[in-house]
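Why does residue order matter? Because the sequence determines the fold. Keep that principle in mind as you read this record.
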Amino acid sequence: MKLKIDHNCLRLRLTADDLRELAAEGVLAETTNIGGASLTYALEPGNGPAVTADLVDTCINVVVPRELLEKWAAGSDVAIEASQPPLRILIEKDLGRGRHE
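Structure:
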C-alpha cells in the first residue's frame, strides 16, 4: 500500500496483493522508518456510516464502512472517494503494479 499526502488530500493506493492481505487479515498497515521514529498508516473496515481518517500518535488510521470496503475490494470500481473537511480521502486500486514497485 502506498501513501501520498498532498496538502489536504490523503491518498492510499492498493495493489492486488494488498487487497488479498486486507481480505485475509481484516486490516492493512505499513510502517515507514524516519530517522529514529516511525510513521504507520493503516486501512481497516469499520462499523460507522462514513469513511474517516485520524492521526493518533504516529499512526494514520483510515476506516471505511465494512460493506463499502468489501464491495469495492471485490468489484470493478477503482476508487473510493470521501471528504472529511478540510481533508479529502482517496483510496485507489493500483492493479498494474507489484507490491513495492
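Residues 16-25 form the longest helix (10 residues).
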